[in-house]
Specification:
Layout (H helix, E strand, L loop, with lengths): L3 H4 L18 H55 L3 H18 L4 H20 L6 H34 L1
Helix pairs in contact: 2-3, 2-4, 3-4, 3-5, 4-5
């Protein structure tokens, strides 16, 4: 009496699907592995996008609150001491915080830079005292804003290059 596996040159395959009694073929396994890999990649991308969106929303909310506080502080500073350098320093610190927090906030960084520039120019144009220190402060603030814009552009380019290379 011959055994089943002797009539078939291949030994029996005990690795069969739970739903079927047919043995798995290597092509099927590769196909299923590719499908699983695609599903895993899609899930990871969706999770990363959701996390980035949540971080950006949180950063935007925090920045809106901070900008409102900065504007109120600026009005108080302008009324009491008329020192614009405090506002510029606060704006620069906020921009650096946003850059450090995440690359997803690049638009927020650009908005904060534009707000900082507008605040600096508007505040300096409202001055009635003709001292030279105001123009120096405005020049320093504009240079800082331009440097920060260049940094943001470089960060965006680096992120895009890394994503494209990978």
């Amino acid at each position: 009496m011959r055994r089943d596996w002797e009539s078939n040159p291949r030994p029996p395959d005990h690795k069969s699907d739970a739903l079927t009694t047919e043995p798995r073929c290597s092509l099927c396994q590769k196909f299923y592995l590719r499908i699983v890999a695609v599903v895993v990649v899609v899930v990871v991308v969706v999770v990363v996008v959701v996390v980035v969106v949540v971080v950006v929303v949180v950063v935007v909310v925090v920045l809106v609150v901070v900008i409102v506080v900065v504007v109120v502080v600026e009005v108080i500073v302008l009324i009491v001491a008329e020192v614009i350098i405090v506002v510029v320093v606060v704006e620069v610190v906020l921009i650096l915080i946003v850059i450090v927090v995440g690359g997803g906030g690049v638009i927020v960084v650009i908005v904060v830079i534009v707000v900082a520039l507008v605040v600096v120019i508007y505040s300096s144009s409202n001055r009635t005292s003709g001292s030279n220190s105001n123009s120096i402060i405005v020049v320093v603030a504009v240079v800082v804003v331009v440097v920060l814009v260049v940094v943001v552009v470089v960060v965006v380019v680096v992120v895009v290059v890394v994503v494209v290379v990978e």
